[in-house]
Amino acid sequence: MTEFHNISNAPTHVAPFSHAVESDGWVILTGQMPTKPGGATTDPLDEGIEAQTRQVMANLETVLKGIGLGLGDVVQCRCFLTEFERDYAVFNDTYKSFFPADRLPARTTVGVTALAVGALVEIDCIARRPA
């Protein structure tokens, strides 16, 4: 059975999607933007890659918590940066601070030309429910 999750205290959708879709214990989270919960998609974003990465990670945590999981259940992340060369090092330092050093998820990071709402970063992920 597939479940489609929308979390009431997560940020407002910026497109038509579910915050997470779950099937057979696998949970796929939609890419999160650096928008704030309760705000409008037109609200200004925090400045800089560090602040935006922290907000994206907080948003991922909110969605995961809403379905009874946490970042420790994440097995893979895909990260998208609009200013790859400029922001990659600071992004890495900020991102890794959310995980224990010996439990980093598999990851792909891609430079892109643009993201929704003018964001510098977007991250989606796959989590697995503990057996």
UniProtKB/TrEMBL annotation:
GO CC terms: cytosol
SUPFAM superfamilies registered for this protein in UniProt: YjgF-like (SSF55298)
GO molecular function: deaminase activity
InterPro entries in UniProt: RutC-like_sf (IPR035959), YjgF/YER057c/UK114 (IPR006175)
Segments crossing the lipid bilayer: none
Lineage top rank: taxon: Bacteria
Pfam families: Ribonuc_L-PSP
CDD domains hit by this protein: YjgF_YER057c_UK114_family
Listed PANTHER family: 2-IMINOBUTANOATE/2-IMINOPROPANOATE DEAMINASE RIDA, 2-IMINOBUTANOATE_2-IMINOPROPANOATE DEAMINASE
Name the UniProt record assigns to this protein: Reactive intermediate/imine deaminase
Organism annotation: Litoreibacter albidus
Taxonomic lineage of the native organism: Bacteria, Pseudomonadati, Pseudomonadota, Alphaproteobacteria, Rhodobacterales
